[in-house]
Design a protein that fits this description.
Blueprint (H helix, E strand, L loop, with lengths): L1 H17 L1 H12 L12 H14 L26 H28 L4 H17 L2 H18 L6 H17 L3 H22 L3 H20 L7 H19 L5 H23 L3 H22 L6 H23 L5 H25 L2 H4 L6 H12 L1 H18 L4 H7 L3 E5 L3 H6 L3 E2 L13 H10 L9 E5 L13 H10 E7 L2 E6 L8 E9 L3 E3 L5 E11 L1 H9 L5 E7 L8 E3 L8 E2 L7 H8 L7 E8 L5 E13 L17 E3 L4 E4 L7 H4 L1 E7 L2 E7 L8 E10 L4 E8 L12 E9 L4 E10 L11 E6 L6 E11 L8 E9 L1
Parallel strand pairs: 1-2, 1-3
Antiparallel strand pairs: 3-5, 4-5, 6-13, 7-12, 8-11, 8-13, 9-10, 9-12, 14-24, 15-18, 16-17, 17-24, 18-23, 19-22, 19-24, 20-21, 20-23
Helix pairs in contact: 2-4, 2-5, 4-5, 4-6, 5-13, 5-14, 6-7, 6-8, 6-12, 7-8, 7-9, 8-9, 8-12, 11-12, 11-13, 12-13, 13-14, 16-17, 20-21
Length: 815
């Protein structure tokens, strides 16, 4: 036995010596090895992870049912503990991506005739990049290096054809993970075919690579149970997602990061020019093969300049490491040694600063190793061997997410097994409650940032068969955007086709109730200067503005190569108040923004979905701090839709209560003429008294004579009926100090200067149990004079005003 071991060692000893650095790098791979998984969670990013995986579980069609940044193999990028088989495949992919990066880096260093100190210098670079770089980027770099190594060979042995077939398959897999990976894969194929033909007059290798990619792409597409006819809309959607990303998703970051990035790019370009001038064809090919990757990494790192910058820092540190090897190799033979020495020093400084920056931004990266990763690796291994444990973990995560989204049981029961979509992004909630998720194609609102993406989302709520029966809507957005401008055409569609049902934990439940839509009426066409107020025209209905903001040539160039500077919008209301400045996305503003009423919270949004509307926007202002990016003029096309009530059957012309005044205070007064606080008297949504909820107005009696809310210029038409409810807040029912409230309604004729009492009622829920909850009333107004009157809603204390928390429930005058 001892002899056989010695014989085996003697046979492999030459290989061990020759490839000692490869085995050293493998040890690095072992040292950084981990089988880490992503646990389902609440929030924005966890929700798209869940959505992308859940789409596969539900067999949704990508390109039609789903159009998102990640493609049909997007689950490979993040091993999410949701579906057992998808998770296992993604774990294997992550380990494979690490190995291929180590192997391809080693082969390239050998090709560049690296010395021992180069291999040693690469140890910290690989340690960092293995930790902070996503699997798809590792795979992309590896495949590009493999292609370069094949091009660098003067001969074309047949084994290369086998390698190219494998690389074509790898590129197909890689291109279906994320759309920016697709464009990189296509670039690599085109670049390889072009270079191989120009340099070697060889088309066979390029043909093998191309055919392998195409066949693999189709094979994977069909294997994932996707319909072939969806490939074209899939590609169109991917193009739109890529095209609009820079404008919509740009955020600012550290200036020194940007400066360092620009310096590194200029440095790489200068080195490439140097090798071009010196006709180093093999190295020119290297720069061509990595060129588009460097551009993609720069965009990925600096458009959304947050933790994404780690991608840039890690990948550029690796590429600069390869360039350092080339420069030190050139140093001895160079006739411009000072210039070359300066290049080596600058390259070292950039690599060092990038690695140091990663350690500062992600301090966990240098500390992560096989020992610290042992718990997560152990858990992953246990999950691989025990599917029951996997299922139990999934169930526990669902319970945890439900704790974050504690919806009332009555709301969940109302949805039952009916289909539901969720706005703006919390897919995790749908998954945790096992709801019947029927997503719009771009299933997170902030990503529907082009007219095309907004339009396909809108269409999802138009089709009778495919539209979800319910929507859960949460008022929120990212990056300081105005939520209603995220998907303007989609919002307009659901505003017409869905109505308010209930509200829980900030989520508004809407139910499908489509109405006939009149053709939009042209109201006005304006051309204004950037930064000047835009007057919103008066219109008895819903106003939408199709706003066209154009880039200058410089702005278009910066949008392509880097990112544009932001645009902002502010609302100026008729009561003299102004909103905050919101981030404005110019691209999909042409789809028509809702400009009737300013919506600053979920209560106001829910009120609008109940069919109410106050045209309270006087002007809006659109501005930018960088006018060189945008044309000076803005064109706005205003259109209007007549108001339609959500009351009654709209298909029946004889239906009663098809029109109404939704009463919201426009003037408040109190005893002694003291003004009421507006916050006390605004209309609230979803006020629950007992088992029933409704929108309501709060009116606490002030003083011994009480408080009055006045509605002026109300037209009492023939057949009118005053419908309302009254109640006292649940928080009062156990307060012995309270002795109840008297509710009165008066009609005042300003011409005759007469006032008539039409309603009088007392509630004392503390002492009379039957007075608790909502009490509903409908008062016919036929016996009262028609015409314009003032309606006075009065609350008075029964004795003292302690805890007289009175509510008027959804008052309206219907006819």
């Amino acid at each position: 036995m001892k002899t056989s071991v010695v014989e085996i060692y003697s046979k492999i000893k030459p290989a061990l010596i020759e490839h000692k650095y490869f085995f050293l790098y493998l040890m690095l791979g072992v040292w950084t090895f981990q089988l880490s998984s992503y646990l389902p969670n609440s929030g924005l990013d966890p929700s798209w992870l869940i959505g992308n995986n859940w789409a596969h579980v539900n067999n949704f069609q990508f390109g039609t049912d789903i159009v998102f940044t990640y493609g049909i193999l997007g689950f490979l990028a993040h091993p999410l503990i949701l579906e057992y088989n998808l998770w296992k495949v993604s774990m294997i992919f992550s380990v494979l991506a690490n190995f291929l990066l180590i192997f391809s880096s080693y082969l390239l260093l050998r090709e560049f005739s690296a010395r021992w100190y180069h291999y040693v210098f690469f140890i910290p670079i690989l340690l960092i990049i293995l930790q902070v770089t996503a699997p798809q980027w590792k795979m992309l770099i590896s495949l590009s290096l493999f292609l370069y190594l094949i091009l660098a060979q003067k001969s074309t042995p047949r084994i290369h054809l086998l390698y190219l077939s494998a690389i074509g398959f790898g590129l197909a897999v890689h291109s279906l993970i994320k759309f920016d990976m697709l464009w990189n894969s296509l670039y690599l194929i085109v670049a390889f075919c072009s270079i191989d033909f120009i340099a070697k007059r060889n088309i066979k290798q390029g043909a093998i690579l191309t055919v392998s990619f195409i066949l693999s792409f189709f094979a994977i597409w069909l294997t994932m149970q996707q319909h072939p006819e969806n490939i074209l809309p899939y590609l169109i959607g991917g193009f739109e997602l890529t095209r609009g990303y820079s404008e919509a998703m740009a955020t600012a970051g550290s200036l020194w990061n940007v400066i360092a990035g620009c310096i590194s790019i200029l440095f790489i370009i200068m080195v490439g020019i140097y090798f071009f001038v010196h006709k180093r064809t093999d190295l020119i090919i290297f720069f061509i093969m990595i060129g588009f990757i460097l551009f993609s990494v720069f965009k990925s790192g600096f458009v959304r300049h947050d933790h994404h910058v780690l991608i840039f820092l890690a990948v550029y540190a690796l590429i600069l490491g390869f360039i350092l090897v080339l420069l030190t190799r050139e140093l001895k033979a160079s006739k411009i040694k000072p210039f070359m020495t300066f290049g080596v020093i600058l390259c070292l400084a950039m690599i060092g600063s990038f690695v140091a920056s990663i350690c500062i931004i992600a301090p966990w990266a240098p500390q992560a190793n096989v020992i610290s990763n042992a718990p997560s690796t152990e858990l992953s291994l246990r999950l691989m061997s025990d599917e029951t444990l996997f299922d139990n973990l999934v169930a526990s995560r669902k319970e945890s997410i439900r704790d974050v989204y504690p919806l009332e049981t009555i709301l969940v029961d109302r949805i039952n097994n009916q289909s539901v979509d969720i706005f703006p992004w919390d897919v995790a909630l749908c998954w945790a409650y096992d709801l019947n998720w029927s997503p719009r194609p771009v299933f997170q609102s902030y990503t529907a940032y082009t007219p095309y993406l907004d339009a396909i989302n809108s269409q999802h709520f138009v089709d009778d068969e495919g539209s979800p029966e319910n929507i859960l809507y949460f008022y929120s957005s990212i990056d300081g955007r105005y939520p209603l401008f995220e998907e303007p055409k989609t919002f307009r569609t659901i505003l017409n086709n869905y109505s308010y049902v209930d509200q829980s934990n900030g989520f508004i439940l809407l139910n499908r109730s489509p109405r006939p839509v009149d053709d939009a009426e042209d109201i006005d066409l304006k051309t204004v200067k950037m930064g000047e107020p835009i007057d919103i025209p008066e219109y008895n209905g819903k106003v939408f503005g199709h706003i066209d903001v154009q880039y200058t040539l410089f702005g278009s160039l910066m949008k392509t190569v880097y990112k544009p500077e932001p645009v902002y919008v502010q609302f100026h209301l008729k009561d003299g108040t102004t909103s905050q400045w919101y981030r404005f996305i110019p691209d999909n503003a042409v789809n028509g923004l809702f400009l009737s009423q300013y919506v600053g919270d979920a209560d106001t949004l829910a009120w609008i979905f109940q069919g109410h509307l106050i045209n309270d926007i006087h002007t809006i202002t659109i501005r930018t701090d960088h006018p060189e990016y945008y044309e000076d003029t803005i064109q706005v096309h205003f259109v209007g839709l007549p108001i339609q009530s959500d009351q009654g059957d709209f298909m029946d012309p004889n239906s009663k209560s098809v029109s109404f005044y939704g009463l919201t205070p426009d003037m408040k007064s109190a005893s002694g003429g003291k003004a009421l606080e507006a916050s006390y008297n605004r209309k609230h949504v979803n006020i629950r008294l007992g088992s029933e909820s409704m929108p309501a107005i709060f009116e606490h009696p002030q003083g011994p004579t009480g408080t009055t809310i006045i509605y002026e210029n109300i037209d009492i038409r023939e057949g009118s009926c005053l419908e309302f409810s009254i109640g006292i807040d649940e928080g009062v029912w156990d307060k012995p100090e309270s002795d109840g409230v008297t509710f009165e309604i008066h009609l005042h004729d300003p011409i005759a200067n007469t006032t008539q009492e039409v309603f009088f009622y007392r509630l004392d829920p503390v002492h009379v149990t039957e007075d608790r909850g909502w009490h509903h009333f409908a008062i016919p107004l036929e016996e009262y004079p028609a015409g314009n009157v003032s309606v006075l809603f009065i609350t008075r204390p029964n004795g003292n005003a302690a805890y007289d928390w009175a509510w008027w429930g959804d008052p309206k005058i219907a006819w």
